[in-house]
Design a protein that fits this description.
This protein has 252 residues and is an alpha/beta fold. The chain has a single domain (7-243), classed as Rossmann fold (3-Layer(aba) Sandwich), CATH 3.40.50. 42% of the residues lie in helices and 17% in strands. Strands 3-2-1-4-5-6-7 form a seven-stranded parallel β-sheet, with helices on both faces. Strand 5 (129-138), helix 5 (151-171) and strand 6 form a beta-alpha-beta unit. Helix 1 packs across helix 7. The structure holds NADP nicotinamide-adenine-dinucleotide phosphate. NADP nicotinamide-adenine-dinucleotide phosphate binds next to helix 1.
């Protein structure tokens, strides 16, 4: 067990990639908290995680909810060793579209969830992190390619990639390493939350799939395996780096 009794917090740990990460961290011995807004998926995920994990309900775009997450985690487990800022993705209608289509409100909602929340998820955690902690920011291959209709999301994820470098420089004296996990197309509920009709979402999923040299989508479990590497001492000399786990889309 590579993470025995390490305390982990996973935002968006109640679905998709975040849940896959939570499960793999637990498999390696971690305890801790998952965080999200939906009570139903929180309850279902908490039951699967077992008694070594708590589920905290809240919104990563709300500062008081983030503070509550860290306070409740500290109360139960003490200081945090692994922070996974994973919550993100779609924010409903109007946020995907060309540069001529996205309005200011849609831009703000997308940026609040996919960039601003990553910044404050880390900032609010700092008093509760152990020195030597590992922070994993979940970005996307969208930071590396031009996918039409995804400009705001992609720019936010490129911003997240940048945060890992600067945060690492600022936190290195505490031995805190900040790295990025950038998934390619992973089979999760995210495609149903894009704010576009179901048939268009299914079409988008197929289109993304057709770009993958490995000829299949990735799994949340595979993302969890990468997170275990970044969370553990196996990656002790890896700082401010990004692992792209995408079946070859960006590099082949
Ligand atoms: N799936 C992919 O192909 C793919 C590719 C590249 C990158 N990613 C990134 O991977 C991450 C996870 O995505 P996923 O595919 O696993 O999608 P998902 O299954 O929809 O999971 C998203 C998670 O984030 C949580 N979340 C969303 N908004 C939140 C908010 N305001 N406050 C707190 N939690 C919030 C959701 O829980 P609630 O809704 O209950 O709050 C859910 O647990 C995202 O950052 C996404 O951008 C995904």
């Amino acid at each position: 067990m590579k993470l025995k009794e390490k305390v982990a917090v996973i935002t968006g740990g109640n679905s998709g990639i975040g849940f896959g990460i939570a499960q793999e961290l637990k498999r390696e011995g971690a305890v801790g908290a998952i965080f999200g807004r939906t009570q139903k998926t929180l309850d279902e995920s908490a039951e699967k995680m077992g008694s070594d994990f708590i589920a905290v309900r809240g919104d990563v775009t709300r500062m008081d909810d983030l503070e509550k997450l860290y306070e409740e985690t500290a109360e139960r487990f003490g200081k945090i060793d692994i922070l996974v800022a994973n919550a993100g993705g779609g924010v409903g209608a109007g946020t995907l579209g060309s540069v001529t289509e996205v309005d200011e409100d849609a831009y703000d909602r997308m940026a609040d969830l996919n960039l601003k929340s990553a910044f404050f998820t880390v900032q609010k955690a700092l008093p509760h992190l152990n020195n030597g902690a590992s922070i994993i920011l979940v970005a996307s291959i969208a930071a590396h390619k031009g996918f039409a209709g995804m400009s705001v999301y992609s720019a936010c994820k490129a911003g997240v990639r940048s945060l890992a470098r600067t945060f690492s420089a600022e936190l290195i004296d505490r031995g805190i390493r900040v790295n990025v996990l950038s998934p390619g197309t992973i089979d999760t509920p995210v495609f149903g939350k894009m704010g576009i009709p179901a048939d268009e979402a299914a079409q988008a999923k197929e289109q993304f799939k057709s770009l993958i040299p490995l000829k299949r989508m990735g799994t949340a479990k595979e993302m969890g395996k990468v997170a275990v590497f970044l969370a553990s001492s196996d990656s002790s000399f890896v700082v401010g780096e990004e692992i792209i786990a995408d079946g070859g889309v960006v590099n082949l």
